[in-house]
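Troubleshooting: if your tokenizer reports a length mismatch, compare against these two reference records.
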Amino acid sequence: MNILHDQKYEVSRREEPFRSIICTPYIGTEFPEANLADWLRAPNSDELISQLALIIAERGVVFFRAQTEITGELQKELMRKLGQLSGRPKENGLYKHPLTRMLGEADPEISGLSNSVTRQMYSTGTPKQASSKVSKGIPGTSRVNWSELSHKLEDFTRARPALNKLTESLIRTGLWPAWHTRRKTWPEDQNWHSDSAFEQNPPDFSSLKMTQLPKDTKDTLWASGYEIYDRLPEKAKQLLECLTVTYSQPVIRSLANAKNSSVFQGPRGSPNNLGTAMEAVHPMVRTHPVTGWKTVFAAGTDYSSDDEDDEAGLMLDRVVINELAADEGKLVLDKVMSLIKDSHDLQVRFQWRNPSDMGM
């Protein structure tokens, strides 16, 4: 972790009014005694929620235990306040998943999550046996103004030879080792992803609330995009900051083409999230608008350039680097994914112990 991260977090930590536990040095803070409903009802509620937004921006994810007083409406109110108090545009609202209507959600701003629902949403073949319902949460609010995060790219027709030379140099010197693991060999729980990256303006905050504990596995993992960026060699950082990535969700696009009336075409949180394309281009490295720290944004469950399904018939996110050839892009994305999967100290593992445990 660089000095900027340490100094800025120490500033915010001195102002925290509630006891907290640092889950890992790089990501994750837990508030074991806090009651979010009290925070929302407090006279200084805006101050508390604004501070919470800063801590989430710095620490990546925060956790609360047994929030039994947080109803669906209070959860939505909390997400609205987090967005409003951290500077999101006034015209933005809570995110609505494009398949919410198809899945029959009672409230389009609250999505029920479970293995069976995931298979229903993303399967094009015969899905595996699904397990019991796991969690319920809302995807949060979205930002419109990402201009400060975007990088103006050079003409890559002119810059392409230099990029090729830099990539070859990184491989030859060992600063960018090749990674041979294929996606199809990964266990399903290794499918890391960035939520709703196929939207022009993905949500800025999201909230997960457990409604029914699963019988077996009760863990969810998050990884720090800040720390991924910090661990890259300087030349690799320079390369990534010149790149853009196209994210798409083929199964949503296919369903949208087949059943327009069943897919919510927007606006989905942001006025920019419209239609059925389910595809967006983002910088591979973003600068967080609250902290000013750089983070690697490119992470997806699949980054092949073809439309081949996996063994379970599950069509996953597509992640493609626009300025590199397919093999070069795969090398870069493999490196990012290897950092996420193999650097356990930049991950945080949260065990869901109680109904109404929350992560955001």
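Reference record two:
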Amino acid sequence: MPGITGTKVYFTSFVLQICGELYIPVNGSPDRKGAAVVISHPMTGVKEQTSTKYAKVLSQAGFYVLTFDAGYQGESAGRPHGLEDPHQRVEDNKAAVSYMTTRHGFVDPARIGMLGICASGGYSSYAAQSDIRVRALATVSAACVGRMTRNGGLHRENNKESPDAIKGALQAAGQWRTDAINSREPEVPAMFSTDIDSIPNDADSFFKDAAAYYGSKRGKHKHSDHKVPPMSYDLMVSYDSFMFQHLISPRPLLMIAGTEAQTLHYSEAAIETAKEPKELFTVEGKNHFDLYDDLEETGPKLVEFFGKYLL
């Protein structure tokens, strides 16, 4: 779908200017009566990567679609650049919905859905729990950055809080804040390496898969350097994406994950606590990052889901 492009747009989230791209339904696509989907990108990602892949599929299927860079990230405003602030990220999603309600004569405010990918599967869940304008929510490879921080990892075995992980995260955050305010211009570390050849064989499989995506033409982008200021971790440590997942009901929830994804357990647990209508859709043999650019099964599933519930 190389001919499908978005138009640059801007809107405000809290006090930050957010940069997005608005996609209109492709000529000849089904008439969805103004139905629209807001798409939120993964942690350390930008709108031009997996969000764009999904935007093109949905616009080809007749939906208006808005992708955007989170506050502090990509082309959006905010310093320090790369900051991962869960509550800013949640507000970005709500602000994106607000922006779509201003597209009078095109978008129907009663037919707006949301799609969150990776950490944004968590942020979009949190947003939908308290924003009833979101009429349907879907996630792909969802994760919770709060549990990841508290539990010292994102694998299934990281299923309880780790005092050592919490202590380490808060010490790193505090030191970085002190250095920053004292004009030491601390270096912002990369969350993971994208040089697949430099990653040891015994490295965490999640970050190996991350490098395979972000370190190749699949996901490499000049605005995505994967640098996360450590002060992000004291913002994430007390956050939880899925604690109130039941509040999404009676609006529909679809959570998609690969059977080989290290993060599958997040979707399983979130679906368990959610109320109907809900569905966990798994893609056989796929890992967390495979679903960023392999839309063979996820694309049609999302078109079906939003087509059914954004009537």
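Descriptive notes for reference record two:
- The first strand starts at residue 7 and ends at 13.
- The mean pLDDT is 97.
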